[in-house]
Amino acid sequence: MNPIGIIIQPPGLSVGGIDSSSSPLSMTTLTNVSPSNNEPMNSTSMPLIQSTQDSKPLLLTTSPDLLQASIKSICAICGDRASGKHYGVYSCEGCKGFFKRTVRKELKYSCRENRNCIVDKKQRNRCQHCRYQKCLTMGMRREAVQEERQRPKDNKGSETEVESTTTCDMPIEQVLEAELGVDGKSDSNIDSQNDPVASICHAADKQLHTLVQWAKRIPHFSELPIQDQVTLLRSGWNELLIAAFSHRSIEVKDGILLATGLQVHRSSAHSAGVGSIFDRVLTELVAKMRDMRMDKSELGCLRAVVLFNPDAKGLQSRNEVERLREKVYTTLDEYCRKTNADDPSRFAKLLLRLPALRSIGLKCLEHLFFFKLIGDTPIDSFLMEMLESPTTATSRSNSTSGSGVTSVTTATVASTTTMA
Predict the structure, then answer these.
(1) How many structural domains are present in the chain?
(2) Containing H/E element for 85?
(3) Does the N-terminal or the C-terminal CB of the chain have fewer CB atoms within 10 Å?
(4) Is the pTM value of this prediction over 0.85?
(5) Which residues contact 52 (CB under 8 A, 6 or more apart)?
(6) Domain named Nuclear receptor: which ranges (predicted)?
């Protein structure tokens, strides 16, 4: 058998147009590198190698055994680092957990594009339909998930034990305590008839400080690097606040209850020109939460899923954040099975609120940026900081003067470390 040529690319090298900077080790198989007639290798048959650094790629001649060993270290679905062979395919913990949830809950997905979305380390969470189809295409077996569930409990490698350990790592009790610990209570509810947008902005600024305290109470969040904590909060603050006031408004008729005790009614929102997005909050979030009778434990888990966003830009501990999100999924799944045994689809129903929350969050940001631009609405300091562009914030936070947008957030996060 002829050996196979492998080019090992250090980060920063480009081989045949493939950039290896996003991967710690990239391997490109070269066909016909070693001629079948054992003639000396012709350098002209090799693809063009462009170096952006002083380092050079290493051309090795290796056996299929070494190639197989290399394949075992890479997730066949997204290209991340594989943790082992799961359901017949070498894959990472994220793709393993995604496939398991999909099969066990019999979840159905749809693609908003042409069913050919890119599924890689950075974009694996963008389209669930294409990610699941790639799992099947690469050889993941649905029956393997069912077989795993039927293993005896005393099996050392049983999924039951793994899930139990995961749940202990993300106790539902602590998630609930985080919600109750920052649950804003007001002695009386006051109707906000004048300038509802200003009232919402003021309440958001107040809740941003409380949001840091809430995040610190979520298990393992404080163990992440401070800069990653800031990155995650900046990435999801709008969705986290919207989820909180939506659940707080379950008992309110045609309106929302702010943390300041103010009630903003639908008519006031329409008069202020934000009626469309306000109606979406009422119908897609508040009404759904009310109909489902979503409790604070479930709300806390959904908010923790939003918090642990592995796709947040600038994140350093991406794999760890992915694992923490998986722990939250498992905790919520077990909680649903224990408290709603007669409704096996509850877990899936809860997760279906997340796309709506994401969409509404983006639309609310558009409105806030507009109000910031025209300057007609007073926006407090902390909220103004969150509305600053990530690029500007990062450059300012790196300045030696200590001033800048993100420095305020970092200081706030760091000052509450003992509250975790």
Answers:
(1) 3
(2) strand 84-86
(3) N
(4) no
(5) 12, 13, 14
(6) 72-147
